[in-house]
Amino acid sequence: MILKKYIKSSIKNIYINNKIKNRVAIDNSNPRFININNTSYLNFSSNDYLGLSHDKNIINSFIKGIKYYGLSSCSSTHITGYSRSHKLLENELSKWLGYESAVLFSSGFSANQSVITTLFNKNDQILVDKLSHASIIEAAYKSKAKFNRFLHNNLYNLRKIYNKKYNKTLIVTEGIFSMDGDSAPLTDIYKLSKELGSLLLVDDAHGIGIIGDKGRGSCYKANILPDILIITFGKAFGIGGAAVLSSINIREFLLQFSKKIIYSTAMPSAQAYAILQSLKFIKKGDHLRQKLNKNIKYFKLGIKNSSFKLLKSNSAIQPIIIGKNHNTLHLSNYLKSNKLWIKAIRPPTVPPGTSRLRITINSMHKRKDLDYLLDKLFEYRYV
């Protein structure tokens, strides 16, 4: 009875504060459009930054992998779930990004949780950028280590909260932040981590494939090699899953002690096979990255003189801060009525008072798509 009241009260409060999250069943989609209930919308909410999720060659490689390996690994990697495709993908990622080794995970969430909860204990400290992804915050909070958050991209505050009494220190940040779209000062954070004798973890889910030579990401562009690099395959790669790049010792420790590896069914071998094909496209994808950057610049220039509050982002993530939940939902629904799909992002995903439209731009968007979006945003101010 107490549980029933708790659930009912919690859901009621979410509705009252306009924080309810609704799932929508999608009929089908492609990098430009999303179809829902037989209605087509221009899609500006996808992380398919290079449009590779519908590339025919990658799709065919996935099909080929399924025919060879079947639909599932049907086991953890420690039993029978580790295939030649897994091993080859790990080796290729290591060489591409300059690390000794890599280990695959089913998701970026799982990868962050595994690294943070497995490697650090009560005699350690974890210092995390305040705007880091929920998977990082939750893992650090639930770990046995002392957990502190430093002000976003603030090295002075990071140095201030550092405490030298702990055995190990982990500093965690992102290459490109998922909700603000801005970048971390990676070179400076790397230098500070070395000065403090700390380990550095960078989650580059939204940078890998997009920036840096051959799409190698934020760290490569900053000319640093953090102790641990986490990348995902559900954004620029257009597929799914993640990888942790590190030293051989860290990889071996994870393989021996990470429950998320030992007790989880491995990524399907066919998926690893398809990611290998996607990696080839990423390496040769300068034309896609150039198209993406042109689209980003065009949108930023087009909205520059509006009264909308924008954040300083040069990435594919272009947030428009509205503030109040109700107003954000109103704008999102207005755009939906005009066949534009842009979901409202509200607390607790973002800090209170910063509800927003998280506009994501990809290389497949056409100039007319961006013009239409800009027209409707400007039009809204007079509704």
Give a description of the structure.
The chain is α/β, with parallel strands linked by helices. The strands form three sheets. It has a seven-stranded mixed β-sheet, with helices on both faces. A hairpin with a 3-residue loop joins β1 and β2. α3 runs parallel beside α11 and α12 runs parallel beside α14. The longest helix is centred in the last third of the chain and has 18 residues. The termini are far apart. The model has no long low-confidence stretch (mean pLDDT 94).
Condensed summary:
The chain has 2 domains: 31-50 and 286-380, Aspartate Aminotransferase, domain 1 (Alpha-Beta Complex), CATH 3.90.1150.10; 57-283, Aspartate Aminotransferase, domain 2, CATH 3.40.640. Helices cover 42% and strands 17% of the residues. It has helices at residues 2-16, 56-69, 84-97, 108-119, 134-142, 155-161, 186-196, 218-221, 248-257, 259-262, 269-283, 286-303, 325-337, 367-380; strands at 28-29, 33-36, 39-43, 101-105, 125-129, 146-150, 169-174, 199-203, 228-232, 242-246, 309-310, 317-323, 340-341, 344-345, 355-360.
Biggest sheet architecture: 7 strands, mixed
Broad structural category: alpha/beta
Helix content: 40-55%
Low-confidence blocks of residues = none
Radius of gyration: 21 Å
> Looking at the structure, what is the overall shape?
globular
| % residues in beta strands | 15-25%
CATH fold-level label of the largest domain: Aspartate Aminotransferase, domain 2
Tally of DSSP helical segments: 14
What's the arrangement of strands in the largest beta sheet?
A: 4-10-9-8-7-5-6
CATH class of the largest domain: Alpha Beta
The CATH architecture name of the largest domain reads 3-Layer(aba) Sandwich
CATH superfamily of the largest domain: Type I PLP-dependent aspartate aminotransferase-like (Major domain)
